[in-house]
Amino acid sequence: MTTTTATPIILPADWRDFLALTKPRVMTLVVFTGLCGMLAAPVAIDPVLGFTAILCIALGAGAAGALNQWYEADLDAKMKRTARRPLPAGRMDRQSALHFGVGLASFSVILMGLAANLLAAGILAVSILFYVLVYTVWLKRRTPQNIVIGGAAGAFPPLIGWAAATGHVATLPLLLFAIVFLWTPPHFWALALFMKSDYAAAGVPMLPVVSGERVTRTQIGLYTIPMAVAAIAPWALGLTGAVYGLVAAIATLVFAALALQVSLRTTGAKDAMRPEKRLFAWSVLYLFILFGAVVIDRWVFA
């Protein structure tokens, strides 16, 4: 008597599955910070070229998301939060995701070079490669510092937007890069605290899984300090006006207060809404507020 092994059935993917590969929620913040970097630049860019550059940033972010899901299909299948994505749910084969991601990445970089300039295209290419090769392939499965180093991938859009408009890089976009880079650890560690079991099930060495909640809470508080310094620095250095300074000070105080609650919370304590969830929710809004203030400040003091 012979036995046969059932072959998983891959259902036909539709446009919604390809859209899901691009991680549209993450893309929203990436596009917004890139747009703010462009609008904060001291020169005006042609609206059509500006739209094209932002489209390239969106396509590049989508490509990185697709390649991330292609490589991590096995991890996604083990996590409740990601199990319904197209690949682990069996709605798409991995080769389609790979081709889609590579094609999208190549198109976005080439179009950026043609529509804007080679510097913006080069930074876009570096951001995609950094997210896929450095963060996804190298860091995520190997070290709890994955978010610390890998955070640079999500910090490139303001640089790209500025470079697309000006053709060079200056102090202000570098500070915007630093804000996102330093914001990433407390933002993702707050998520990891209430998704700890999911990461543990998938074998991802996130800080709460490897070092425990107490260490993670302490690190969230510690990383908030340099993030706060970076957030105030554009105003302190005279690169923005009082509008940004006031908004940044208030928003950062709220962030710091929530981070302090997370740091001081006793492991295992019960409450209606854990402070790490409040911090995670505010951290997303925080970047929108901060980068929006940069643009408004420029318009007011231009």
Explain what the structure shows:
The chain has 302 residues and is mostly helical. The chain has two domains: 14-168, Tetracycline Repressor, domain 2 (Orthogonal Bundle), CATH 1.10.357.140; 170-302. Helix content is 74%, strand content 0%. It is built from 14 helices and no strands. α3 runs parallel beside α6 and α9 (171-194) packs antiparallel against α12.
What are its keywords?
single chain, 302 residues, mainly alpha, Tetracycline Repressor, domain 2, 2 domains, 14 helices, flat
Brief summary:
The protein is mainly α and 302 residues long.
Break the fold down into its secondary structure elements and pairings:
Layout: H1 15-21, H2 24-39, H3 47-71, H4 73-78, H5 94-115, H6 118-139, H7 146-150, H8 157-166, H9 171-194, H10 196-202, H11 207-211, H12 213-236, H13 242-264, H14 275-301
Give the name of the CATH architecture of the largest domain: Orthogonal Bundle
Work out the radius of gyration.
20 Å
The largest pleated sheet is described as:
none
Give the helices and strands as they follow along the chain: HHHHHHHHHHHHHH
